[in-house]
Please model this.
Amino acid sequence: MKRVDVTYVLLNDDHKNVLMVKNKGEKSSYYTLPGGAVEQGETLKEAALREVKEETGLDVQINDVLSVSEAFFEERGHHVIFFTFSGKIIGGEIHLSRPEEIEEITWMDSKIANEYVQIDSKATVPYILRGTIPKA
Model:
């Protein structure tokens, strides 16, 4: 199985609503937090910033890690590790820039959003980038 890392960012307006994107799936559409796959050479934080900007048009500040989870996608042959960060909107405007991938960007009541993604974590852990380690 191929290892794939994915970052998501939890953005909320007042702890009542969560920003969600509705992705076009092969069989049906589904809601997730903004985010996506980490590209070669990217840090988790860089991927999170890029994905939120690409999917929503928003500039965000990435904060701590809310959760780490994993899944096996047998059909694709992927072992996916999901890193969910808390974040804060610092600029930009919401716009649908990828209509071929995303149907909708919406503020969703956090209780409803929690049915799609696990977002009720109260604890966080810091994200620490240790940089590049040179060869010994």
